[in-house]
# Entry
Amino acid sequence: MANKVQGVFKKKDRVAAKKTTSTKPNKWIKIQTPRGMKDILPEAMLYYDLVLKTAQNVLNYYGYQKIETPVLEKAELFIRSIGKESDIAHKEMYFVKNSEEQLVLRPEGTAPVARLYIENALFNLSQPVKLYYFLPFFRHEKPQAGRYRQFYQLGAEALGSDSPALDAQIILITSEILIELGLGKDIVFKLNSIGCQKCRHNYIKHLTKYYKQYSNKLCNDCRRRLKLNPLRLLDCKDEHCVVFKEGAPNFLDYLCDDCRAHFKKLLEILDGLNISYNLDKTLVRGLDYYTKTVFEIMLGSDQTDLAVGGGGRYDGLIETIGRLSRPGVGMALGVERLIEQIKNKKRLTFPKSDIFLIQLGDQARLAAFKLLEECRKNKILVRESLGQESLKNQLRIANNYGVNYTIIIGQEEVINDVVILKDMNSGLQEIVPSKKIIEVLRGLNKSALAKPLNDDSSVFKE
# Structure
């Protein structure tokens, strides 16, 4: 009996072992960036830094101050402000699961700035309050050239004034940023006024009447828009719907006296500043909070090649969010699209150093650390590879950098408080006291570093 029981257990063990060993290992999953998102490598970051630095120089001059809002915002902020039936709120927002509240990754920048303005009581400051941001945003839309699901925008907002002079200033600043980025040759602003709530109601009535005659030919989204938000009909990019926009009523014909006067004054200022613009009666922008002025920025020889940004006035947005009536106007530029255009015109590279620091031994490495810090404080760019031990490897790295000079510090140089300065082109080298090396390097920076030293013009000797 005991043998039989033992045999049963052995059989069970064998079956279990067989099942365990026959199980296939889990398939290796290659982890990559999500679709529509990308890493920004150091070379690409040069262009992002260029856009930000260029914009900051212009914006800071005009009194705009940099801010940052949270990546996560309450979904209600955007549903209430940009419109429940807008494409962004309807199908492009990234929702974050949370048991306490419904949160989303911010899809655009103006509504968060309006919330910031209310929440931090910036309405108590001198008006207008001028702010700008350089931030990533997130939209679940179809990726395409120059458009990603995570993307950067440069935005500027002026809150607390309804003067058309602020509209003009925002457009001027946008123009100047593009000019200083080297993209000013083919800028054209598409411009329109979509009035206020008072005059918009009459326009929408006529717009709805016009589109109803083509309702059976519209795309599914536009059939929905016709019932829920007719103004969005003019924002449709579907080829079946675009053909009907040309015959749509002209918004400028329905403006009330105040909106007409506001738009007229804006055009007078732009004309005085020699800023080119094209009036576009079908331009409405894709967000419900816009009022009066709306514009898009186009780059291209025929002004239809590429939209790189847009903006407009949003006099009712702050009241929609916080029951506080304050006007505002702003703009946003798509950074990735700007970078595409910049790359077509110039290539950015990292600053080139003409000097490489070689160290041999622990004491020499410590001396190298100290010398590098002295060079940094004196704005002398020096490359190094402090993790390397051998002279051969460090010389190879110096050659890869293409430097003309190397500083060599060994144990003997540390004891004698000197360094060796070597001309990589001629092979000549000179022993320089440590306390004079900064002065010598300054002299090299002022000279034509690309030229090899010769016996007559240098302190180098065999």
Summary: The radius of gyration is 32 Å.
